[in-house]
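Quick sanity check, Acyl-CoA synthetase (AMP-forming)/AMP-acid ligase II:
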Amino acid sequence: MSNIVNVLQLAAMDNQDTTAIDADPELSFSRLWSLTDRFAGGLRAHEIGKGDSVGICLTDPATLLVAIYGTLRNGSVPVVFSPDLFDSEVADGLDEVGSTALVVDDRSPVSLISLSSSMQFIITVDIDSYFGMSYEEFLDNSGINPSGARTGRNLIERAEDDDAVLTYGPTDGDGAPRTYTHGDLQEAASEAEPSRQKPIVALGPVYEEIQPDSASLSPNPC
């Protein structure tokens, strides 16, 4: 079994106080690991489990990192949309893969709710949560392990050839997402040195696919 989240876990253990990526406020590896646990816990609280897809359309790189790895940690499949896509294109993608959840930070949830037939709830980051659940409320849980449980479970394992991330880039007019397996992300991570850069570099192809004309998701060089 394999899971790209193992790469993040090792980096977090060895570099707890090190900044994972440049963000405001700073996001340390320790904080990143904790937030992914809460994100996974939020998904489990909404009965989203292993193999289920989760829509993600975010402009903030730190929140994007948490959402992708939190979804992966739950054994689920992040479906990452370019922020340049129209609401109708995002909704069509959600319906194509059967995503019941979507997290957004820079668009109104109203039209997305009306356009998508598969989406059952929406998580809003720094925008009006009247038509959805706020990011802070979503993260308010005991993590991937149920409250009081002592399983010691840190993540849900997946096979190397299992789908890890699906992407809808700004030029994917045919409606077909690009698929990255856990093995693909592991291969991308293997090219990075030092080890603390591996979990960020692993998502480099994903970020370039959804935002090819903007600055790439870059690890902290220090």
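Posting the structure with no commentary besides this: The CA atoms of residues 61 and 217 lie 7 Å apart.
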